[in-house]
Amino acid sequence: MVRRTIHVVNLDPAAEHFDYQPLADIRELIHLDDAMDDDSLRFGPNGGLVFCMEYLAQNFDWLHEQLDEVEDDYILFDCPGQIELYTHIPVMKQLAETLQKWDFRLCGVFLVDSQFMIEASKFVSGILTALSTMVNLELPHVNVMTKIDLLSKKAKKNLDRYLEPELPMLLSEEFDDSKFNHKFKKLNSAMATMIDDYSLVKFLPLDISDEDSINDVLLQIDNAIQYGEDLEPREIRDELLEEEESNCDSGFG
């Protein structure tokens, strides 16, 4: 495994517990229960989550204080999964812009459950959601298909169709004339052709039981943020030596 010091910042106000100590935790600023239990707000889970994130945006000074002593470290910002925050509500874009003003190099990592994505129509829906997020955040972006290790053997055999997809063909196989009308099929075909022609979205598979899979994703993220360019040659050498020793110890060569 890669021996790299990584700090985690929890930005999910609905998170329940961690097996590690976050560098910063939004729940110390505001918790989802605060928004849902307040008699003057009376939010449900979705509205409460949006309120918490907008409250964070109004209090970025708190986040800056939590990050003030961090220098040249690798930080993972663990964000909530509510898709509205990334597609049409501006709060996550405001967060990204603020972090960049603080000289952070950012890469958006969009995670989609592979068990949701192995049907053609759902796959197109996931692609359009990822595309909307990419356009809204305006960041270097890596799209990851997660939980590959949980797929059935049959699903894994079909996985390549979605990692290197020919979308018009996939949709033509799923949408037969007996179930879908002509306009619906034509709309989906047009969207698939646009995505296919411009190679707008690609997904990387992530299998947490496969070290090569993890390293492939990490390499893409490192390239996106130009990780290592500011390291001194000795620091780079030490990281490579540590990685080589770890691979030898774990049986990878």
From TrEMBL:
SUPFAM superfamilies (alphabetical): P-loop containing nucleoside triphosphate hydrolases
Superkingdom of this protein's organism: Eukaryota
Gene Ontology molecular functions: GTP binding; GTPase activity
Keywords recorded for this protein, A-Z: GTP-binding, Hydrolase, Nucleotide-binding
CDD domains named in the record: GPN3
UniProt cross-references to InterPro entries, sorted A to Z: Gpn (IPR004130), Gpn3 (IPR030228), P-loop_NTPase (IPR027417)
Function: Small GTPase required for proper nuclear import of RNA polymerase II and III (RNAPII and RNAPIII). May act at an RNAP assembly step prior to nuclear import.
Subunit structure, as described in the record: Binds to RNA polymerase II (RNAPII).
Family recorded in the similarity comment: Belongs to the GPN-loop GTPase family.
Name used for this protein in its record: GPN-loop GTPase 3
